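Why does residue order matter? Because the sequence determines the fold. Keep that principle in mind as you read this record.
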Amino acid sequence: MALKGISLDHILSSAALRAQITTEGVVEKIGYEGSISYMDELYLTKTESILNVLSMQESSYNSIMLLGHNPAISELANLLQSENISKFPTLGILKIDFEIESWHDILDAKGKLDFFIFPKQFKYYIPREVRVTLNK
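Structure:
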């Protein structure tokens, strides 16, 4: 995320302890100092519930990071864009770009996949740029 220069306006995270620990780790690594909402509604829930939570976010947020759980997060990833994600892996990061005016519009939107990365991609080789970023 740091290498891609992604800026966030808000983070939505499951209230589950493991999700909170992951969120705090991401926040620290990318130097995020904005708002975070830990929500019970994102834990062991249906895809439609997550989509409803997203649709109720403030229109002033241009970029939201969502941390959740399978299988709902995989289903949501496939619902919101055209590429098939068979299973969203642990610590996977998917960025979808939308052309919407407000988050309410996401209920009927199909976005475009920008990137999808996950830790096992780097099992045997970690690009120098990533190694430098991880060691900060």
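The chain has a mean pLDDT of 88.
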